[in-house]
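Amino acids appear as letters; backbone shape is given numerically. Here is one record.
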Amino acid sequence: MSVNPTPEAPLGMYVHIPWCVQKCPYCDFNSHNLKGGLPETEYVSHLLDDLVADLPFVTNPDGSLREVTSIFIGGGTPSLLSISAMARLLEGIKERIPLASNAEITMEANPGTVESDKFVGFQKVGITRISVGVQSFHTEHLQSLGRIHDAQQAIDAIKLASILKLKSFNLDLMHGLPGQSVEDAMQDLKTAIALNPPHLSWYQLTIEPNTAFHSKPPTLPDDDVLWEIQEQGHALLSAAGYEQYEISAYAKPGHQCQHNLNYWRFGDYLGIGCGAHGKITKAHPNINSLDKQTCELHRTVKVKHPKGYMDLTRSYLDQKNPVDDDDLAFEFFMNRFRIFEMCPKTEFQCTTGRSLTQDERAKLNKALSLGLIQETPTSWQLTALGKRYLNSLLDLFV
């Protein structure tokens, strides 16, 4: 496959902090209960060494390094890190790889008193965007989710984030919770909207394998209640000036999460830290054509457990898997149709390195005939029906 890669193409970086004070029963992320002190000095050193080990993946043919345009520090609970550890991490990243002057640097945070008291310090050392994991403003629902903060702490944390000189901030809210009524869900949304976050992630609780909720499933609202929550919630958010730009994300104009947009646009990103996933496109000279290059797309996974990750006798990289040519269309559209903006047709070739096959074109024609997407000479876009039946759309490409 041939492609003309652009070194200026966006490159993101995900950094994983794996520890939490207490793991929530619904969480299937790579997180571990903190036992004893946080080994932040040692772990930050490993994160920076991990980054250095990945630099060959993002080295241009002329020897220069690609520029990072966004960093997302997730977990776990990254706000458990001290201000000095976060400063050392961000400075270390800047010393090792070019960072865009306007880079969006997001940190996930719990709204507990200890973490939120540090928001000002995180902003001073370079965090430009904070994502606060509120989930609910109802005490009983917070308790059922295993959250260790209360509603007032959540409100206080959002108010603090709102007065900082941040590029933006996000409020994470869940719905479809055990015992939650439509009225409860709408009250949560109204409370969130009153706090005026520029970005609001609003998503349905799902029961995932390898979680406490999967072992002992709670009773969740039925499908009719879930549908009513979705319909009323969308109307409420739209009336408040929020635009749904992604399946579970709403934003005021200009406040979309740039890091996540890069994911869904099938962009590249380095995955640094325990269990972190990355996606890298690497170009090589094509010996059959002097003016073209071949494109290799790989997904990377780092060692999952902190003890193994910080073992100096082994590599940080656990897996490096090529994306098969037969899977490219599915992977591209699985990501690209998660966001609701128009998808320029040129993006497919630019990010996958090849054109659509006849079979893939036929699958798009099927989606068109079902009313799941619309097409212009230069773009594709989800329809309202496609948003509702996204899984059915993606099943066409399996």
